[in-house]
Amino acid sequence: MTEKSWFIFKGDHHLGPYQVEEILRLFNSGKLDDSAMLWKEGSQEWLPFHAQKELLGALSPDTNFKSVEDLEAFETNESIDANSMPKADIENDAIFEDPLAVWNAATEKEKLVSNEEALPLVEEITTSEHGLWNEDSESVEEAIENDEGPPPLPPIPDSPQLDSLPHFEAPEEQENLEPTNPNINLLVNELGEGSEDWGVEDITPPKGTPLPKEMLEEMQESERERQGPYPEEGAEEFPEEIETEDLEEEEEEEEEEEPKFVNLVVKDPDDAFVKYPYLKYVVGLACAFGLIASLYFLSKGGEKEKRLFINLKPKWERRLKNVATGGSKWEFDMAVATNGGELWVASRHAGPLTLFLTLTSIRGKVITSEPIVVTSKTLLENHGGLFDKWSIVEGPRLEPGYYKYELTAYQTGQKAKVLRFLKETDLAKDWDWVKASKKKYQKRGSLLFYPGSDDDFFAKLKEYKINKKEKRLRPVRDLLEKYRTLDSLANTTKNLFKKMLLEAVIGKDIEKFERRYGLEVSPILQGIVLNNHKIQVSLVEADHDLSLRYGKVVTYGKQIGVVISELASSVRDKKKLRQKDRNKILNSLESQFNTLNELGKIRIKEIEEEIENFVF
């Protein structure tokens, strides 16, 4: 069975698609004549039946073409006898819509159209031409382009059947017609408001345009259906007309009643501001000064007064109060609080001032051996301020003692802002009191950071130095004691060896010396050497210099043991001791021990001088 690719032109539309067999069946049944316009998918134009070579080739040779009159005659037929059709064709077409039925239905519609009152042709409106696409119109167009549907039909051919159809012209617009129903006007307004959103031209009729009677009746009927059998209370049932002229008159009256603003300010030629234009600048400057002064005094008056100069000894409190109430403006004095960690400052200047303080310790007058540098900041108000927070720059912490200080004061607050403003203006920068005002003030000196008298501090400092000296000299004194012990052991060992050598006859007699040496000298010597070696190792990282000094003590003790061991070995090798041998060994003994004794005395003398001349 062939594909359905044929279309038949019928009046102002087309029918199809049909198969070749269906077209031939319509032709053989008399439904089509040889002048019927046909089109096949892929063709360029519509052609009559007798010009379709494909269809003519499928007809039997004895087929007679029918005329146009026959076509008009077959249009009155309403059905086709299914019994005259081959059974196989009916079964094959069971799943498709009967083309004859479609043809008959189209014919019946044409008859109904011809019998009814002719209506004007309404041009088909497409949303794309009138901008009715919504936001998704592009996606819809893409979907349509991607749809694999049949190709578009060619343009409608020129046919005598189209010329025979009646044509009507739309009625011309009438001017100066007014609407007679408020509901119609409401509907038109709603459509007009939405037209901007949808891209549709405004369809609101001009003022005074009456609506057709049929449309008014239809809208009245729909309103009755909406209200039901019981219309809303107080609602008028479609007044005949709206008095638009009265509304226009009311709008014009409202526009006329709108107030008009008129500049009523008239400059007086005798006005001071007109005669002297610069006067307004002077007045403005004076107002600005008054505003700044008001803000300043209000801010000062609203502040809660703080308690000043507390936790001080009475005499120091009186001293600071005297400075705050008398003396020069930039005079400052400071005193340490009784807690020993805070420092009060007083000034004749009422403030507010931002104060920066730096304290540097004086060597030998602070209860510490390390240098100290600290800083602090405070705000001086009502002639007083308190340094209570310290930043450590150098050293362990802030210790009691004498310090060099550097105090720097900066003016802050509203008054300082006014002075800076005046110094930047050409008018006031040369004024004496403006020039005399200081941007900052610095003072240097020394103070005792200790909550007591000088005598108390120096007594405490002396005690601290004694304790610190003993602590610092403790390892030095230990070294001195070790050297003295080793020197004494060296002398004892020399005398003991000399005595045993004089009594010995043979070399083995030296064993008596070795026994006494092992009991009297060796334990003490070994203890000193081992103990100092441990101290030496423990101080390698903590105090390298002191570790080296203990290492020298260890070496000195080992040298004593080495000399005794060498002399004892030289005696043991002799089978018989002669006087000559004794003298030689004694000379060696004296020489080596004298060297050790001199070294020990030198070390002892150095340590004694160090202790005597120790300065903390």
How would you portray this structure in words?
With 616 residues, the chain is of the alpha+beta class. The protein folds into 4 domains: 138 residues, no CATH class; 67 residues, no CATH class; 139 residues, Sandwich (Immunoglobulin-like), CATH 2.60.40; 153 residues. It is built from 20 helices and 12 strands. Strands 10-8-7-11-12 form a 5-stranded antiparallel sheet. A 4-stranded antiparallel sheet has the order 2-1-3-4. A hairpin with a 6-residue loop joins strand 7 and strand 8. About 24% of the residues have low confidence.
Total number of beta strands = 12
Task: Identify low-pLDDT runs.
Answer: 66-97, 111-149, 161-209, 232-245, 260-265, 301-305
**Overall radius of gyration:** 65 Å
How many domains in all? 4
**Strand order across the biggest sheet?**
10-8-7-11-12
**Approximately how much helix is present in the residues?**
40-55%
Number of helices, where a helix is a run of at least 4 consecutive DSSP H or I residues: 20
Strand content: 5-15%
Major sheet size, sense and barrel closure = 5 strands, antiparallel
What distance lies between the first and last C-alpha atoms, to the nearest angstrom?
127 Å
Structural class: alpha+beta
Overall pLDDT: 72
**Mass-distribution shape:** flat
